[in-house]
Amino acid sequence: MFGTIFRKNKSVSNKAAQAVQMQRFSKDLNKNIKYIQQVLSKCCDLESRPIRIGRNRQINARIFFIDGMVDAAFMATNILEPLMLLEPGDDCGLEIHEEIFNSLLPAGTVTIEQSPNMLVTRLLSGGIAIVVEGQEKAFAVEAIGWQERAVEESQTETVVKGARAGFVENIRVNRSLIRRMIKYPGLKFERLTVGRITNTEVNIAYIEGIVMEGLVEKVKERIERIDIDGTANFGMLQEMIDDSTFSVFSQSYSTERPDRACSCLLEGRVLIIMDNFPFVTVVPSVITQFFQSAEDYSTKYLIASFVRLLRFIGLNITVLLPGLYVAIFSYHHEMIPTELLKSISQAREQLPFPIFLEMLVLEISFEILREAGVRLPRPVGQAVSIVGALVIGQAAVAARLVSPPSIIIVALTAIASFTIPIPEGSDAHRLLRFPVLLAAGAFGLPGIITAWLMLLVHLSGLRSFGVPYLSPVSPFSLSDWKDFLIRVPSSFMKTRPIQTGKSNIRRQDNGKQGGK
Amino acid sequence: MQKYRISGGQLIGMMFWTIMGTAIISLPVLIGHHAPRDAWAAAVLFTIGGIGLSLIVGALANRFPRRDFVVYSQQVLGTWMGKLLILAFLVWLFHTMGFVLWQIANFISLSLLPKTPIVAIMAILLLPSVYVVFDGIESLSRCSQVIFLPTIIIIYLLYLMLIPDVNLENLLPIFGDGAANIFRASITPLAWAGEIMFVVFLAPFLNKAGNTIKYPVITMVLIGFGGVINELFYTAVFGLLRQHSSNPFYSLIRYIRPTAFVERYDILFVTINLLGNFVKLSVFLYIFVLGLSQLMGMKSHRPLTLPSAAALLLSTNYLVNSPNELVAFLDTVFPLYTIPLLYGLPALVLLVAAIRRIK
Question: Could you give the ipTM of this predicted complex?
């Protein structure tokens, strides 16, 4: 339905490049040079340098590169120096381009391109292009030398004890971070390209023999189906490959941590890595991931289990507590002990607004504060949070606009929402508390239960790449509970999750573990 | 037909609350009228009847694996006879669904939301059911599975808290109400147990065809066990006074002594009741919509979901007037046509199929 509306103007892209089409290189060097310059006209970052190579320096050649994207020192020593100083031997009798390829380009990645357009693509992704007179092909030497962020500690998923490295924008570094952890030939990276204009590289990573059956094909098919001019944000692509786009829950989740990505690979999942995006997306994702954090595996199992239960409580507080508070104090006073009721009623005396309105306003103001705190520059953000939360909150209570118990509930809800370790989960649940609040305001406890049931029904029908979102709760599989609300000791985690790891279920053999 | 598959455990989860959902509210009242002391015996009879029907239903499902009841019953009984009986069943389903909905809404209205119009309460009760039925059997079975265990655990925890109030002498003398009264008390529960025949509609969705018998039997044993415990506790705590309670389970929960933090536990009861009856309403609505769509030869049940729910909501006003009337109706008229229909229909189909050797 929406597809047909949005699919109208299909081929806006590539018009500039298609103006003068040239399928193959010609023998005429000037023609080739002219073509490249024409395609990249008005690109002031295009640099070119004519050189003469070969015996007696008779052959004209031209080097192209994009300023700032290539490593200048590398270019000087590995391309310019040999080409300009060395002479090919006279007795080899090989074509000059083979001669160059074999002995004059001491670089790791050299490709011979037949098509000028491919050469331009190489050029634009940090390559050095060498066009030689009389040859219907050209060389592209990879010499990436742009500035980039070093591998730093992950910002979104911090741990006290555990690996620090986080993914960066460069897809090759990200690949290497994963490869470093899994030294196994079965670990595959498949290259796809997304975006008609951006030509963004997207990789699919999986471990052969472990990955869920049919998953790789499904992921590939969904990514190849994407027809977009370009995006720099994987969030958009994530929405395009999700099973149900309209759900509040994201059916794939992103991680910034290589160790977490690797453990997902070992569970039979697939990683989607996008260039220029420092997060790796994991599919399929199920409800267990709301409770798992990388930290859990480096602390003792009892502590990890305790923390997981805390997260479960935190999740329920986030969604239900504001609603329950409103329901109990506007409909069901008799539910709570008299003393508690008395103290809260006293606090609410002479307040102008009904409790539902009070909570709604407070929750929305909290969201505003949070958003402002996140978007503003960090020092200012902190100031805003302090002014907003402390000063306004204090003043609102003093001015008898809101009651202290309501502030406590809102603050508790807010803090609880941050116990969910993945941002996707935390955001979804923070949003969900509003429908629950509305239902509670309208129908009290039955309203909350109805809202909860609607959520349950929604989750029951949800799938992520064919895997039921609610597993292992339903379809029930006891063996997967070992890494869900509790974490059992590592020596008991003998099997992979049943939904994704079916094709190779055992992780450990039955041998004895530990010191016994 | 949608080719979704449900597991045996999910089927048990669905059927458990389908029967237990209102059984836990209505049956103790009716049983208490006739045999307050030996109520547990009526629960045993209820279980035996249910297991008997389970065997028939299981045999039927094994005889026609992966096939829809609506379709093969017409094949067995003849098109017109089959259609007529299925139609009668659907009418029964619609009517029962109507007063079940009214009953839950009435309970919510009395206990929690006295000022809210009952139609609004019924609407919010139906809303999740409509959603899940629209989504299909897969979602329904998963929801039931999620709800099944926690609710049962909470119920038994509540019973544990009641142990200080139990007075076993209330149960004596055993069989003091007389056999006639016990049998009279078990008539309406037997009608309730007849709902286990819904399994014939759900069996085609099972992921393992064949050997369907065990699932309804396990369900009935679980329900029967719960029912016996229920009845024992009502009588042991209230004695003969239970005759005067219009909702014994609710009274029982309110009887739990307040602890330091929670003044009253009825919030838990209301929650369980709503969750359980969500399953009940959803299964009823699903089978109604499924049966109707198959009867009319439709490919999908979905288009019928919303109209059926709307019709249900509008008709409840004309179905029931007052709780007392409903109790009297359930005690006398309801079993008279329910037992022949729910027990008779699968038994008839099985019998005729056996005679005509249709497989």
Answer: 0.92
